[in-house]
DNA sequence: GCAAATTTGTCCGTATGTATC
DNA sequence: AGATACATACGGACAAATTTG
């Protein structure tokens, strides 16, 4: 059979067994669940996992790589393996590559992305203007001021402020999934757009004005105006995508 | 230095180089992009990649495992390695595990999922009733009939019909991202809910009636009624989650 | 149907880089 | 600085799946 290790004797001829690596993946998952570990908690070392799960280092390491790609596990070289943050980093990686690969319609991916982000914010308009208080409005205003100060819309300060603005905007929903998806899509857009010659934040001044209008709508508790401001905000983004598509 | 292979001579002492495996990941990505490969296209064999990228087989294999976890690459034992389908399977894996792990609030994850699915369908109500033609309505009706025939709401026929129903419902948007996200969330719900003693499709008859109401709204081109029917549909789902939470 | 060739799956032993104490 | 524990990486060998002659 195999070289050294002991595996369940019965070959189970017709069962089409899954790769051992996958059993190790499931075993590590079960371990985390069984002991109710939290992100950051340490996992057994590789040799310990080998013995516990009856697999070689290679199989254990490949399993760990899979789990690390999903952010279920986090590896620190020379230190150890830990439960991961369970972020949506895998989604970002996957979507970003899809955006770069997509053949005829590179731009459809970006367009779809923007649709979802706008849907999140416009679809929750009523709840957002209701739950965004004065304190949150002040913080939103702070990001708008940062954008205005950063100026042309190309510096990292501008980009970061824009990301923070939209993150904070949907935070009051208390729906972590929407918040993380929205942030993930923002990241994917920031990765893919430059490769497709889509200008990001072309006109700094206009972008700042659009964000200001959103803040004003929040302060006025006017969900209709809030929705309108969002439409005004995402319109230019779509236009830039369409222009880049036309250039091809 | 290392055992056999040749690597760039300069050790670059303080640069904190990234792991070789990551370079291999990037190398394979670049290969796919450079030759504009499509899903299903074959990739070089492992030995070929080792030589091309100057890495050992272990490193190449770990890199492939990462890319396979993201569905950027697909591996068939004894056959070869191919460009993957770029699905959102990684999102499903990641979110499903989060739902199982989540400590105090296992149910918040499910609740968030349902919020997003309802947001997709309700937020696009106008476009959906406009773009869903009679042909699509007939197909939706077919799934409702399947659910009615399957009866109690527990059999696989019922489940599959429900999934197909919602997939078809948002298909006319022409937004693949929304469609795949919605399907992914449906899958995550189906994986996580049973583990939390959340009954899925408790009352078959009521569920069928709610879906029927949605089809009727589509036929009537009544977006307000369409929205109302969706609220009626997702209400019981939320109630079941709340009940299960209360039982804890 | 069988055997060979190709490709991925798994194992082992060893050496190196990294972080902690 | 040294010792220890850990992950990273290498190379070779054999096992299992698939295709092909």
Write a brief structural summary:
Two copies of one chain form a homodimer. Chain A is mainly alpha-helical and 248 residues long. In chain A, 68% of the residues lie in helices and 3% in strands.
How would you describe this structure to a colleague?
Two copies of one chain form a homodimer. Chain A folds into two domains: 21-83, Winged helix-like DNA-binding domain superfamily/Winged helix DNA-binding domain (Arc Repressor Mutant, subunit A); 89-247, Four Helix Bundle (Hemerythrin (Met), subunit A) (Up-down Bundle). Chain A is 68% helix and 3% strand. Chain A contains eleven helices and two strands. The first copy, chain A, has a two-stranded antiparallel ribbon. The longest helix of chain A is centred in the last third of the chain and has 25 residues, at 223-247. The radius of gyration of chain A is 24 Å and the shape is elongated. Chain A binds a DNA duplex (21 and 21 nucleotides) through residues 1-5, 19-21, 45-47, 55-59, 61-62, 64, 75-81.
Order of helices and strands of chain A: HHHEEHHHHHHHH
- Average predicted confidence as pLDDT of chain A: 88
How helix-rich are the residues of chain A, as a percent range?
55-70%
Form type of chain A:
elongated
What's the count of strands of chain A? 2
The gyration radius over C-alpha positions of chain A equals: 24 Å
Query: How many discrete domains of chain A?
Result: 2
């Amino acid at each position: 059979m195999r070289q050294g290790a002991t595996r369940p004797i019965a070959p189970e001829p017709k069962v089409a067994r899954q790769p051992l690596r996958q059993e190790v993946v499931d075993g590590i998952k079960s371990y985390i669940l069984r002991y109710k570990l939290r992100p950051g908690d340490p996992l057994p070392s590789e040799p310990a996992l080998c013995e516990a799960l009856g697999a070689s280092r290679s199989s254990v390491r490949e399993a760990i790589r899979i789990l690390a790609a999903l952010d279920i596990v986090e590896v620190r070289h020379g230190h150890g393996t830990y439960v991961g943050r369970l972020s949506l980093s895998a989604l970002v990686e996957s979507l970003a590559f899809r955006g770069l690969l997509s053949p005829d319609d590179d731009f459809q991916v970006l367009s779809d992305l923007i649709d979802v982000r706008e849907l999140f914010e416009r679809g929750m308009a009523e709840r957002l203007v209701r739950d965004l208080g004065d304190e949150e409005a002040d913080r939103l205003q702070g990001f708008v001021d940062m954008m205005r100060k950063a100026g042309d819309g190309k510096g990292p300060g501008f980009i970061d402020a824009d990301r923070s603005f939209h993150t904070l905007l949907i935070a009051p929903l208390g729906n972590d999934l929407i918040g993380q998806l929205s942030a993930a899509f923002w990241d994917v857009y920031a990765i893919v757009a430059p490769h497709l010659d889509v200008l990001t934040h072309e006109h700094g001044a206009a972008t700042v004005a659009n964000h200001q209008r959103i803040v004003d709508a929040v302060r006025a508790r006017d969900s209709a105006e809030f929705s309108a401001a969002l439409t005004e905000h995402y319109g230019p983004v779509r236009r830039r995508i369409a222009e880049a598509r036309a250039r091809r």
